[in-house]
Amino acid sequence: MTATAPTVTWTDAQREAAFWRWLTPLAQAQGLDVATLAPASADASFRRYLRVQGAGGVSRIIMDAPPPQEDVRHFVDVAARLQRAGLHVPEVLAVDETQGFILLSDLGNTLYLKVLQSAELPEADALMRSAVKALVQWQQHGDATGLPVYDEALLQRELALFPEWCVGREYGVTWTDKQQATWQQICRVLVDSALAQPQVVVHRDWMPRNLMVCEPNPGVLDFQDAVRGPVTYDIASLLRDAFHSWDEAQEIDWAARWWQQARAAGVLGEHDMAADFGEAWRALEYMGLQRHLKVLGIFCRLKHRDGKPHYATDLPRFFAYVTRVALRYRELKPLIGLIEPMTGSLTTTAFSLR
After folding, report:
1. Are 193 and 152 in contact (CB under 8 A)?
2. Of 163, 211, 294, 303, most Cβ neighbours within 10 A?
């Protein structure tokens, strides 16, 4: 098919042919100019996104999510849940569930991350407050019925990515039996904390890279992995991001705003953290630590298994997050001895998270 822009490449001729069989009649019906088809973005999964221009200057986004690696039914399902909760998400205009193609409305080009990395604090504060408000709305009104559960098995599988891919593959470190026992003890603490929290609908990547600056604000992306799980997971993802960090005083300010709103909305129920922000902050830190250990493993897996080495450039940020939390809580301090061979002076010297 000669209509494909040169910048859109295909590694599978059969999938390319299937794509054009799906898009050609759809483009005619929707008034899309296939000659404008171009990459929009890609992520850490097998998905990629293409942008195509339509009538009246209105652009559309196409998700290319090849099965069996991806299942677009989850995306369509969670998009509907977010819409019912009153959040701003891409509208699903057409879908081929068998082939893994979706036509979506376009929320634009302006990621939260792009703006926050250069914004002055007043602008950043306004954006983050909008993100916090939307998160509480999601937690209050989002329907978690039938979603996968963020249970002990899933939490443990995620934590296991750290010793396998970061400790072993990236750094070539082999733990002794004693160190393995220490690791299992740390995992037990983190999993118990997560399971003891109020359980709500969880986006799983509620972070600036997946939020769009648009109207109404924010637009929400990359939600197909939603689960039912710990209430602090998404706020921890927002405040302790994979690609941008804040001073802790600012983190606490936004966390307190989330806590106040979540408590008022009944999201925290009768849990201890509803009456004590200190308890909520501790739970957030423990949840963030679980996530950061998982992401250290994922980023190393992306490098060694999937040929995406650029993610590993952010490993120091995550080790800094891990170090800061582990040093603060007595039951987590043994983690310092496990990561020190990989971080060196990071555990004993000030490290800027900026």
Report:
1. no
2. 211
The residue range of the domain holding 266 is 112-347
pLDDT band of residue 42 (cuts 50, 70, 90) is low
> What is the tally of structural domains in the chain?
2
CATH code at 191?
3.90.1200.10
3-state secondary structure of 120: coil
Preceding amide of 334 cis, omega within 30: no
What are the structure tokens assigned to 124, written together?
């950043």
Round to whole Å and give the CA distance between 275 and 297. 35
Domain boundary among 60, 80, 105: 105
* Residue 296, Cβ density class (10 Å: 0-12 exposed, 13-18 middle, ≥19 buried): buried
pLDDT of residue 44: 57
Rounded Cα distance, 296 and 161, in Å: 8
SS3 149: strand
Last residue of a domain, one of 105, 124, 157: 105
Same domain, 98 and 169: no
Residue 38 lies in a domain: yes
d(CA 142, CA 87): 9
Instruction: Residue count of the chain, please give it.
Output: 354
State CA 113 to chain mean position distance: 12
